[in-house]
Amino acid sequence: MKSEVAEEKREEIIKACEELYKETSFKDITIKGIGEQGKFSRTSIYYYFQTKEEIFLALFTREYENWIKDLEELYNKNEELTKEKFAEKLAHTIEKRRNLLKLLSMNMYDMEENSRIEELTKFKSAYGKSVKMVKKCIDKFLKEMAEEEKDKFIFSFFTFMYGIYPYAEVTEKQKKAMENAKVPFKFQTIYEITYNGLLKLLK
User: Fold this and answer.
1) Strands (DSSP E) along the chain, which ranges?
2) SS3 for 115?
3) DSSP 3-state of 44
4) What is the pLDDT along the chain (203 residues), one digit of tens a residue?
5) CB contact at 8 A, 39 and 9
């Protein structure tokens, strides 16, 4: 019972951080601010997390765990998929993970550098499971791919994910700067970027 209460409190802290992150930048969020958002004392937060980066890392871990659930559903609910259909369905799992992409592209180094090894290990475990689940889907739906090609796809896809968010979430200031610099810009959604990227990687 005590562990369940502790897990609930930990999740409440993560949710408070998540709510702040919708409107506030990573660098401007503090332990104090997270406490005020969720009506926790800083002492109660420090019982579960030593730094704000650990809270973000826990949010990041949860994002991977939720993505893994979507990947498992993709695996279990489909018997056969063409490359195009696989790219479509995998892209749909990614478009739901906006926070995962944002954290991946913008704040990963700080989170990892300022978290205890046990918290980082939990995160790496969730990340590793997502890699294995994508590989499991490839093994099922893309049987014609050679093992070497599957490995190349995995490496390229997980590297590609780092760049999705900055291209899908362009600010008005960035748009204005590109306009001033005469850099052409065409808006694409997270789904569109992911789907088109997957098609290229699967050729």
Assistant:
1) none
2) coil
3) helix
4) 557 878 899 999 999 999 999 999 999 999 999 999 999 898 999 999 999 999 999 999 999 999 999 999 999 999 999 999 999 999 999 999 999 999 999 889 999 999 999 999 999 999 999 999 999 999 999 999 999 999 999 999 999 999 999 999 988 999 999 999 999 888 899 999 999 999 999 98
5) no
* Contact status, residue 112 vs residue 120, Cβ threshold 8 Å: yes
Ordered by where they begin, the domains of the chain are: 1-48 (1.10.10.60), 52-202 (1.10.357.10)
Query: Quick one: 127 exposed, middle or buried, by C-beta within 10 A (0-12, 13-18, 19+)?
Result: middle
Helices and strands, number each (H, E), in the chain: 12, 0
Residue 175 and residue 107: Cα distance in Å, rounded?
22
Q: How many residues does the chain have?
A: 203
Amino acid of residue 124: K
Angle at 164 between CA 112 and CA 184, to 5 degrees: 135
How many whole angstroms separate alpha carbon 21 and alpha carbon 150?
35
Contact (CB, 8 A) for 52 and 103:
no
Q: How many CA atoms lie within 13 A of 142 on its CB side?
A: 24
Please give the model's pTM, rounded to 2 decimal places. 0.92
Q: Are 60 and 123 in contact (CB under 8 A)?
A: yes
